[in-house]
Design brief:
InterPro entries: Hist_DNA-bd, IHF-like_DNA-bd_dom_sf. Belongs to the bacterial histone-like protein family. By secondary structure, this protein is of the alpha+beta class. It contains three helices and five strands, in the order ααβββββα. The longest helix has 20 residues, at about 20-40.
């Protein structure tokens, strides 16, 4: 689902909102969440999940072209942890049957 899909869905559900109002509402919510995470705050939406900022410590890496070791600096990255209700809702809608594509090549092997 894209941002425009979200705006369209909001407009369908709340017919009194114009497309511009729905777009403004989505933008306002996403901007508020981005600002809160940028300030280091944690966001919790009950039944959906929580967003927080995780710290990735500095580490040594390699330049793939030269093989030279380089220092990769510390990073702060956003992290989402789904809530129980979201996990259960996704699990209910996920088909239990295995995918028709398989890595097991024993059926194709000549006898």
């Amino acid at each position: 689902m894209t941002r425009s899909d979200l705006v369209a869905r909001l407009g369908e559900r709340f017919t009194q909102l114009t497309h511009r109002d729905a777009e403004f509402a989505v933008k306002t919510i996403l901007d508020a969440m981005s600002d809160a995470l940028a300030r280091g705050h944690r966001i919790e939406i009950r039944g959906f999940g929580s967003f927080q900022v995780n710290r990735r410590p500095p580490r040594m890496g390699r330049n793939p072209r030269s093989g030279e070791q380089v220092v990769i600096p510390e990073k702060l990255v956003p992290h989402f942890k789904p809530g129980k209700a979201l996990r259960e809702a996704v699990d209910e809608r996920t088909p239990a049957e295995p995918s028709p594509v398989s890595n097991d090549r024993s059926d194709d092997a000549p006898a």
